[in-house]
Design brief:
CATH class: Alpha Beta
Order of helices and strands: HEHHEHEHEHEHEHHEHEHH
Largest sheet: 8 strands, parallel, barrel
Radius of gyration: 17 Å
Shape: globular
CATH superfamily: Aldolase class I
Helix content: 40-55%
CATH architecture: Alpha-Beta Barrel
CATH topology: TIM Barrel
Number of domains: 1
Distance between the termini: 19 Å
Number of strands: 8
Strand order of the largest sheet: 1-2-3-4-5-6-7-8
Low-confidence stretches: 1-8
Oligomer: single chain
Number of helices: 12
Strand content: 15-25%
Length: 254
């Protein structure tokens, strides 16, 4: 698949709809509907939908996963923590992909990558039934070679590299540090691909910073959510996604 990506230049876009649910839950009503957002994203050219079912259900809820599984025609990337509860939910639904992420109740959003290297035995056992059920298992990690190597060792099919630090450094005007972080992301993507892992990236990506990330040739997919939901307030969800798609394609010379 990575070789095909290099030939075509195509980079997939996964749209995360978590924060449509955040807005809905702020009023305790049924609107806006995350499923409607997912279907609009499909129409706008999203290659997949990402939804993070957190332990505290702060945005996506169990009923949302049910609705997405029933209605989507593009793959669902089910984000969750590596808990017994989430494993059972994933095995019941058998989504196309399951991305394991670190999760703390007090955090506003995912603050860093999963420490796979320190939890290899448990994670190997944890993902085995998910793999046997036909789900592609992804590890949301930093670009640290130890974490990448550990992800390959436990049998993950995919790693998603955390781009949050790069995004924050650029936003804060630390261009030189951002360049160093970008170089580390590039090296991490190259190393992961050399181990046979499919490589994704995401977190904090915007129109202003996506092109440098999208230009990394080893990447197969970007997952973007918060920025697109926010931008939708001003230009509409479909137009926001179409513009992100345009910038990703531009970075790939398409």
């Amino acid at each position: 698949m990575i070789q095909a990506l290099h030939q075509t230049g195509k980079l997939r876009l996964g749209v995360n709809i978590d924060h449509v649910a955040t807005v809905r839950n702020a009023r305790g009503s049924a609107w806006p509907d995350p499923l409607r957002a997912a279907l609009l994203a499909e129409t706008a050219g999203a290659d997949g939908i990402t939804a993070h079912l957190r332990e505290d259900r702060r945005h996506i809820r169990d009923a949302d996963i049910e609705a997405l599984m029933a209605a989507l025609t593009v793959p669902l990337n089910f984000e969750c923590a590596a808990t017994a509860e989430m494993q059972a939910i994933a095995l019941r639904h058998k989504p196309h992909a399951i991305c394991l992420v670190p999760e703390k109740r007090e955090e506003r959003t995912t603050e860093g990558g999963l420490d796979v290297a320190s939890d290899q035995n448990r994670l190997t056992d944890y993902i085995t039934p998910l793999r046997e059920a036909g789900c592609r298992v992804s590890m949301f990690i930093s670009h640290d070679p130890r974490q990448i190597e550990a992800s390959a060792r436990i049998g993950a099919a995919v790693v998603e590299l955390h781009t949050g630090l790069y995004s924050d450094l650029l936003a804060d005007g630390h261009a030189a540090l951002a360049d160093r972080e970008l170089a580390s992301l590039q090296a991490g993507a190259e190393f992961a691909a050399s181990l046979g892992l499919e490589v994704h990236a995401g977190h904090g990506l915007t129109y202003d910073n996506v092109e440098a990330i999208a230009a990394i040739p080893e990447l197969a997919e970007l997952n973007i959510g918060h920025f697109l939901v926010g931008e939708a307030i001003f230009r509409g969800l479909e137009a926001s996604i179409e513009e992100m798609r345009r910038r990703m394609d531009l970075a790939r010379g398409l």
